[in-house]
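[Discussion] Sanity-checking designs against the backbone

I'm trying to build intuition for which residues belong where. Below is a structure token string of 386 positions. I'd appreciate it if someone posts a full sequence so I can compare it with mine line by line.
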């Protein structure tokens, strides 16, 4: 029995890219770069499975529905960033790096933004064999150095109710899996479920200001949103036996996470709606580093602002945030946990890792000056239907 389908090479759309820089005064081309992209595994895997689900269940008397409509357009926006990490087609799912420029693929733009270019509808075309997209960036837009070109949704949308994890009630703050059991933090309650989501125990923590928790080495670590008694811990066998670990470390502390890779705790100190301080501690809660990030695109608050680590990346509330303050929204609702490669949000949805559609890593950085215009031509060569 064949239990896994491997996509043949001619099944995957191929992206051919040309970047052209022109001197605005002479109109002469000063640089041309040609490269290619990869299609993210999430697109090939999750979207394919969703469409197959549609084919088999749609309009059946068993309650089928169009699952694929849960996902947005993974090629709605093109973004140019300074990300230079190696390509990993099998695992990459996030846009990373500072955004130098971007353009929507579904509409044109004629404003004065310093980063937004426009889709060139006159030179673009779509056929059954090829999608030919052209983007123009005037002298005032996308000035700087970039090395990655991403396609992704312009804003992450909420999957519909088909992608819900088992009903565990409302008001979920944080969710973890440990030793094949699920731990769910609500207002002042910790609930424990077995692997089949049957409730095993419910513990009254008698403290409604606890906002997040982490499990490390058979201990629960709770974080409060006040300056006093900030971090407390309890043995996993007795979740209500709270013991003070550290206090008075923050303004409003709303999140805690543990990075298994470097064995460090991360605690979020929310200074304002767009400024957050991440404090890094070793396993004995000795302070290692503090990073303060201000980003006007963020909408963070200490209230229920849990931290989540997935694949070594930090998710704060609904945003992926790197150490340079670059942010990318990954969820419509707040992420309350990451388990077995899936994100769980506070409204009860399971979110597959589908934040990007593709990425191209350039062989060398490209720098656009304010005396130059830029044209990016992107051809997606589509696989044959038959």
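Best answer:
Here's mine. Compare freely.
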């Amino acid at each position: 029995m064949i239990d896994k389908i491997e996509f043949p090479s001619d099944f995957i759309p191929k992206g051919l890219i040309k970047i052209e820089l022109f001197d605005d005064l002479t109109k002469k081309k000063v640089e041309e770069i040609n490269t290619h992209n990869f299609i993210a595994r999430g697109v090939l895997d999750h979207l394919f499975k969703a469409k197959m689900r549609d084919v088999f269940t749609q309009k059946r008397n068993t309650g089928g529905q169009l699952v694929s409509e849960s996902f947005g357009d993974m090629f709605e926006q093109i973004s140019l960033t300074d990300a230079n990490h190696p390509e990993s087609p099998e695992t990459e799912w996030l846009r990373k790096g500072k955004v130098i420029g971007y353009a929507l693929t579904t509409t044109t733009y004629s404003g004065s933004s310093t980063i937004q270019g426009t889709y060139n509808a006159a030179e673009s075309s779509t056929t059954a064999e090829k999608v030919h997209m052209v983007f123009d960036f005037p002298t005032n837009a996308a000035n700087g150095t970039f090395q990655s070109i991403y396609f992704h949704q312009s804003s992450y949308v909420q999957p519909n109710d088909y992608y819900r994890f088992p009903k565990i009630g409302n008001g979920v703050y944080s969710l973890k899996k440990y030793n094949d059991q699920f731990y769910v933090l609500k207002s002042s309650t910790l609930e424990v479920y077995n692997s089949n989501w049957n409730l095993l125990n419910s513990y009254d923590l008698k403290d409604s200001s606890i906002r997040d928790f982490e499990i490390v080495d058979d201990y629960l670590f709770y974080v409060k949103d006040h300056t006093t008694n900030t971090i407390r811990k309890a043995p996993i066998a007795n979740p209500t036996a709270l013991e003070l670990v550290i206090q008075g470390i923050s303004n409003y502390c709303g999140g805690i996470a543990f990075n298994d890779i470097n064995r460090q705790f991360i605690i979020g100190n929310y200074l304002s709606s767009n400024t957050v301080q991440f404090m890094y501690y070793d396993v004995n809660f000795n302070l290692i580093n503090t990073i303060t990030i201000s980003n006007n695109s963020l909408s963070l608050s200490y209230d229920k602002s849990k931290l989540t680590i997935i694949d070594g990346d930090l998710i704060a509330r609904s945003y992926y945030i790197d150490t340079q303050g670059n942010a990318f929204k990954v969820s419509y609702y707040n992420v309350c946990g990451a388990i077995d490669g899936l994100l769980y949000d506070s409204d009860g949805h399971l979110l597959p890792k589908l934040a990007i559609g593709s990425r191209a890593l350039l062989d060398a950085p490209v720098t656009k000056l304010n005396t130059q215009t830029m044209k990016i031509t992107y051809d997606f060569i589509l696989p044959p239907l038959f």
